[in-house]
């Protein structure tokens, strides 16, 4: 089963590559407060269809380059209400 993550596109300036920020919350083991964590992933966008600000789903794949191990699966929401 391949892992899937949902995040926001931070940058689409590179050729066939997007930078996706995935925000998660985790609970502190001792203090029980919730902490926000942000992870950045480089994802392969073959058709260069994603733009900055889009909400996307990325899926785990074989290594494509030194930092790219994810691939764009679908665009969930575009800023401005388009889909």
Strand order of the largest sheet: 1-2-3-5-4
Q: Compute the CA-based radius of gyration.
A: 14 Å
Number of domains: 1
Q: How helical, in percent, are the residues?
A: under 10%
In sequence order, what are the helices and strands, one letter per element?
EEEEE
Number of helices: 0
Structural class: mainly beta
Number of strands: 5
CATH class designation? Mainly Beta
In CATH, the architecture is Beta Barrel
What is the assigned CATH homologous superfamily?
Nucleic acid-binding proteins
Instruction: Please state the overall shape, judged from the principal axes of the Cα atoms.
Output: globular
Residues in β-strands, percent: over 45%
The overall pLDDT, averaged over residues, is 95
CATH topology: OB fold (Dihydrolipoamide Acetyltransferase, E2P)
Query: Unreliable runs, pLDDT <50, ≥5 residues?
Result: none
Main sheet record: 5 strands, mixed, barrel
End-to-end gap: 27 Å
Q: How would you summarize what this structure contains?
A:
The chain is mostly beta strands and 83 residues long.
What is the strand and helix layout of this fold?
Blueprint (H helix, E strand, L loop, with lengths): L3 E8 L5 E11 L6 E11 L10 E6 L7 E10 L6
Parallel strand pairs: 3-5
Antiparallel strand pairs: 1-2, 1-4, 2-3, 4-5
């Amino acid at each position: 089963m391949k892992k899937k993550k949902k995040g926001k596109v931070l940058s689409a300036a590179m050729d066939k590559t997007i930078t996706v920020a995935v925000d998660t919350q985790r609970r502190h083991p001792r203090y029980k407060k919730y902490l926000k964590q942000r992870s950045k992933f480089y994802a392969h966008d073959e058709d260069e269809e994603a733009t900055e600000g889009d909400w996307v789903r990325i899926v785990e794949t074989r290594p494509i380059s030194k930092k790219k191990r994810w691939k764009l699966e679908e665009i969930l929401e575009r800023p401005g209400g388009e889909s």
